[in-house]
Amino acid sequence: MIDGNHALSISRQAKLAGISRGSVYYLPRPVGAADLALMRRIDELHLEHPFMGARMLRDQLNRQGFKVGRKHIGTLMARMGIEALYRKPGTSKKHPGHEIYPYLLRGLTINRANQVWALDTTYIPMAKGFVYLTAVVDWASRKVLAAKVAITLEACHAVDVLQEAFNRHGRPEIVNTDQGSQFTAYEFVQAVKEQGCKLSMDGRGAWRDNVFVERLWKSVKYERVYLYAYGSVTEARTSIMQYMDWYNRSRPHSSLGKKTPDEAYAVMLPTVKLAA
After folding, report:
1. If you count Cβ atoms within 10 Å of the first and of the last residue's Cβ in the chain, which end, N or C, has fewer?
2. Whether residue 64 sits in one domain with residue 148
């Protein structure tokens, strides 16, 4: 698709093709079978016990027969894009070069569709390798408004999935994310601001601040991802997108009065008053 000998620059070709420039140069580094097995188990433990940091994960994994140290677990967690979810000292410390926005949802009654959208990214294991899943979720209805499977954690993927949600569903009042680098990047922040939305960010490591997306990840993984050993990125993407469609249309939620996210979203959309 990208021709290094073409008259157009690589950057221009990537833009025309709708992919990031970084993806053009991306060369996947093979991950050993031992590390892949570790990452899969770390993902499972993190899903069940999100408060576990590298030390506690090390202790749990050692008890399960994995001979691994704390530093290596920390390295794998960083590669997976996860961290222990609990309120820690120094939560207001900013990422170097990136502005951190305040959390706007505390005490806010959220009962309308397109009032608050939440974005997050999660690690998805495959038979050999892994990918990342980013999704936009309507907070009130739990509806997945857009999702994307990608091989990197670049900001462009977060922008892509957010733009898809804008194009299909309009715009929310508030966009809430965690403090991941893909969400604090200038490219993503501008995409939010250009639509006139307020940007809200979870406290660093605060597990309650984006709890509905965390619940979605648990559903996706236990009801789909962990049941399959995806052999390719295409296979993972197809399967996960099929699940998202089913989740929206057919999975009722007790918190929504047994409505599906699609049904709840339709009911919760604000009524537009016609001019007299």
Report:
1. C
2. no
CA 107 to chain centre: 24
Number of domains into which the chain is organized: 2
pTM of the model: 0.78
Burial of 88 (0-12, 13-18, 19+ CB in 10 A): middle
From residue 196, give the alpha-carbon distance in Å to each of 7, 138, 205: 38, 17, 27
Cβ atoms of residues 24 and 14 within 8 Å: yes
The pLDDT value given to residue 202: 82
Q: Give tens-digit pLDDT for 182-240.
A: 999 999 999 999 999 999 998 765 555 567 888 899 999 999 999 999 999 999 999 99
pLDDT tens digits, residue range 242-275?
Answer: 999 999 999 999 989 999 999 999 999 977 554 5
Residues 264 and 132 in one domain: yes
For residue 6, the model assigns a pLDDT of: 55
Higher pLDDT, 217 or 93: 217
